[in-house]
Amino acid sequence: MNEPNHQTPQKDEENFDSLTFEVVEEEHTAQGKVRRRGIYLVPNLITTAALLCGFYSIIASMNGDIQKAIYAIIIAALLDGLDGRVARAMNAQSAFGEQFDSLSDMLAFGVAPAMLMYSWSLTGLNRFGLMCCFVYTACAAFRLARFNVQIGSVDKRYFIGIASPLAAIVVLCTVWVQRDFAEIINFSSPWVLGTNAVVMVVVGLLMVSNLKYYSFKVMDKKRVPFVMMIPVVLIFSAITYNIPLGLLSLAIAYVISGFITTWMARKKPVVAKA
To answer: Does 272 score more than 80 pLDDT?
Structure first.
């Protein structure tokens, strides 16, 4: 009879023999699976900075400092797009980094935008406004959990459901435009409150939908006609004229693109295999 092997439990206990925890991960290398201690510093520092921005945005929203709350979410979105690229460039991707990034996204793009909208407008709807903001936050959690379990099994060209940072941009741009046009918009009117409530619920549901959104992770390097630069210049000009309105227009166009992309994918004929 073979004696039980106690080597693995002993190794696991060694990871918890100090006052602070230690991360131990298995990595696939040319020599096979290797257990390594510690984390990659640079990408996780960027993720921590994004987490800080999300936390600060929540505090700013609670204090009524809406503009700072908006800027904090925008910076968090920029950092979120940076940490993954830095990790890939440094060959510093890890399971810990993926999970930490999702937790940071949950705070910065799931909780912070909901707090922003609730503090800005939906307090006027009392419990119904709270419910709409919670729907958005819950859908962000569902979307991030689904993304984690589907890593490595989906087409990298597309997001299934709108990504949480882009959903947050839609919410914050809605608030930003209303704030910029405060002189002509009555924020206590039922149609404004209703619009904001609908935005939170619809954007939340889009995060957990099966719509395909282009991810821009796999860019086509083929040359295109120079005339393609003209729409780009017009878009940048519109954003420069009014940044919040321009960004909101782009965000709405991106939301609509998911319906078009999904419809076109379903219209493609299925080629029968011999």
So the answer is: no
End-to-end Cα distance, the chain: 52
The phi, psi pair for 34, rounded to 5°, reads -130, 130
CB 124 within 8 A of CB 72: no
Contacts of 264 by beta carbon, 8 Å cutoff, 6+ apart: none
Kindly list the distances between the CA atom of residue 124 and the CA atoms of 151, 189, 192, in Å, as whole numbers in the listed order. 40, 10, 10
And the tokens for 10? 């002993």
The overall pTM is greater than 0.85: no
- As given in the structure block, the two tokens for residue 22 are 């230690």
Summarised one tens digit per residue, pLDDT across range 36-52 is 666 777 888 999 999 99
User: What's the mean pLDDT when you consider all of the chain?
Assistant: 81
* Residue 218: CB atoms within 10 Å: 11
* Cα–Cα distance, 16 to 29 (Å, whole number): 25
pLDDT score for 88? 81
Q: Determine the Cα–Cα distance for residues 132 and 88; give it in Å rounded to an integer.
A: 37
**Cα(134)–Cα(245) distance, integer angstroms:** 26
CA 23 to CA 42: how far, in whole Å?
16
Q: What are phi and psi of 201, to 5 degrees?
A: -70, -45
pLDDT in tens, 174-194: 999 998 887 787 777 888 899
Q: What's residue 34's pLDDT?
A: 56
d(CA 85, CA 92) in angstroms, rounded, equals 10
